[in-house]
Specification:
Blueprint lengths: L1 H16 L4 H20 L3 H18 L7 H22 L9 H10 L29 H10 L7 H34 L3 H5 L5 H12 L15 H6 L7 H12 L5 H10 L5
Helix pairs in contact: 1-2, 1-4, 2-3, 3-4, 3-5, 4-5, 6-7
Length: 275
């Protein structure tokens, strides 16, 4: 048995150089099988168990169901060292100690086809980032309703600040509409006829329209008793501009004859001072 163990040590060194050598794999298998048989005859069960697991590993290797790797060779060399320690104990008349359970479990795993190996643990997927929802800004109507439903009649400082913020937001939203309406007014004013700006004098038609706006249609100079056209009217011809005489007549009709504020002021200035 000692010679077989020495041969196994040499064969394992060669196997590291020729991992696919079928004859070498088969020879190592027979070596562990022979040692197991002798240990079984002597009822050295710890030695039998370790050699049996190593034998099964090489049975899988020689049948091409697993490849020789550096990790596998480390386990087999450890198993051979354990078998040598057990054999030394037997030669010294001592009962061999059982092989470490971890070693036997690893040999048992390697004695199965490589396809049955447990798949590598998949990397955990990163946790999704939590979505933080931002609450909407309070609306003025909602704040007023909250204050109205409150049991207390007094408004708190926080409620007042929220109400001001909501109102400021509403005014900001309304500013574009106000600006657009102002632009419309500007456009309307700019569309007025340029002819009105070219003259500072008011025509009869414009003055009549002004009186209609003040007194109502048909209640201006049209209700006054028509008078015969004066010589000034004949001289003016078809001129649309109002003369001083016409303007004086118009004031007499509006305020009464002799009640013209300008005439009254003139008479007052001419009156002699009392002595």
């Amino acid at each position: 048995a000692g010679e077989i163990l020495e041969l196994l040590s040499e064969q394992l060194v060669d196997l590291e150089q020729r991992p696919d050598d079928y004859d070498l794999l088969n020879a190592i298998f027979r070596g562990f099988h022979t040692v197991k048989g002798g240990a079984g005859f002597l009822q050295l069960n710890p030695l039998v168990d370790c050699c049996h697991e190593a034998e099964n590993v090489f049975d899988i290797l020689r049948n091409g169901k697993r490849k020789v790797t550096s990790d596998l060779m480390d386990v087999i060399l450890e198993a051979l060292d354990t078998v040598n320690e057990m054999f030394d104990a037997v030669r010294n008349g001592q009962a061999p100690e059982a092989a470490p359970p971890e070693l036997l479990a690893t040999l048992n795993t390697l004695a199965k086809p490589e396809s049955e190996d447990a798949p590598a643990a998949a990397e955990p997927e990163p946790a999704a980032e939590p979505v933080i929802e931002t609450p909407d800004a309070p609306v003025a109507s909602d704040i007023v309703e909250t204050i109205a439903n409150s049991e207390s009649e007094d408004i708190t400082d926080d409620e007042f600040e929220q109400l001001l913020d909501a109102l400021d937001g509403s005014e900001t939203d309304a500013k574009p509409e106000e600006a657009s309406s102002g632009d419309d007014v500007f456009l309307d004013v700019s569309d007025e006829p340029a002819a009105a700006e070219s003259s500072d004098e008011i025509t009869e038609d414009e003055f009549e329209a002004l009186l209609d706006q003040i007194h109502g249609p048909g209640k201006g100079t049209a209700e006054a008793k028509p008078e015969e056209p004066s010589s000034n009217d004949a001289a003016s011809g078809n001129d649309d501009l109002i003369t001083d005489s016409e303007f004086e007549d118009l004031l007499d009709r509006l305020h009464g004859k002799g009640a013209n504020p300008a005439d009254a002021a003139a008479e007052k200035a001419e009156a002699p001072k009392a002595e």
